[in-house]
Amino acid sequence: MRSGKIAVGLAILVLLTIKSMGQAQGLADLVAEGATLTKLAGDFRFTEGPAVDKAGNLYFSDIPNEKIHKWSVDGKLSTVREMSGGANGLYFSANGDLYACEGTARRVTSMTPGGKVSVLASSFAGKKLNSPNDLWIDKKGGIYFTDPRYGNMENIEQDGFHVYYISPDGKKVTRVINDMVKPNGIIGTADNRTLYVADSGGRKIYAYRIKKPGMIGDRRIICEEGSDGMTLDSEGNIYITTAAVQIYSPRGQKLGTIAGPEGPANVCFGGPERDILFITARTSLYSIKMKVHGQ
């Protein structure tokens, strides 16, 4: 595994400039002036699941190698967990525990800063989960997660690919979405009013109103795109991953595209000021400086 700040050039294509609420907004309003897409580290097998801790350090998964890595704010790469159960999506809780969707192990777990791993959910209605993929934690400490399956379709016990909610006390798992083809990326707004879910199988990004923890409704389509991972910026814009990173306004207006040498799997804002957009892309980790910040 090699690391180093190797500038690969800014490959940004401005597809559209949108006027929203009387103000022009496009990619130039989001990306820092003169910023370049930078390769931070490479030689992984499939990077995914970026998540940032309180200090701004970036954690991400290398799924086939069953490892979770850390890219520190001072530019150092380290491994924080091995034999990760095929960990995919990651997210930090308010107390600093690292939550993970372990796709191979078919469970959702938490890991303390000291490295103790606990299982939060591994089944629903007495049947094993398919392959937990991505997750988001609300203000109450409840966990929304997607449960599709890619690759091997053997030993599936659930009746489809759905979205679930783990209660804050960890005692109850509820199915909250049951009509998607293959849910994947998931993220909620900081005010806990909106939940975004990508149906990669149905090629749509949906926004749901969160009525209360573990109860959602009033679905609307943001765009006719599938996506792997997703994140939100301080303006409420949605960053999705297809062949490139695509950015949409909360109303579903296309703002632009950030393209790189490898197809992105997931995105996350990090760094001390949360103004660095990290992109996990196949064998590598990339970053680009932004004008906007993460939520």
| Number of strand segments | 30
List the strand order in the largest sheet: 1-5-30-29-28
Number of domains: 1
Radius of gyration: 18 Å
Under the CATH scheme, which class?
Mainly Beta
User: CATH H-level name... which superfamily?
Assistant: TolB, C-terminal domain
The termini sit apart by 31 Å
* Average pLDDT reading: 92
Percent helix: under 10%
Shape: globular
β-strand percent reads over 45%
The major sheet is characterized as:
5 strands, antiparallel
Q: What name does CATH use for the topology?
A: Neuraminidase
Poorly predicted parts: 6-24
From the coordinates shown, what is the CATH architecture?
6 Propeller
Structural class given helices, strands, pairing?
A: mainly beta
Order of helices and strands: EEEEEEEEEEEEEEEEEEEEEEEEEEEEEE
SSE topology sketch:
Layout: E1 2-7, E2 12-13, E3 18-20, E4 23-25, E5 38-42, E6 47-52, E7 58-62, E8 67-71, E9 77-82, E10 87-92, E11 98-102, E12 107-111, E13 117-121, E14 123-124, E15 127-128, E16 135-137, E17 143-147, E18 162-166, E19 173-177, E20 183-188, E21 194-199, E22 204-212, E23 215-223, E24 230-232, E25 238-241, E26 245-248, E27 254-258, E28 266-270, E29 276-281, E30 284-289
What keyword list fits this structure?
5-stranded antiparallel beta sheet, mainly beta, 30 strands, Neuraminidase, about 300 residues
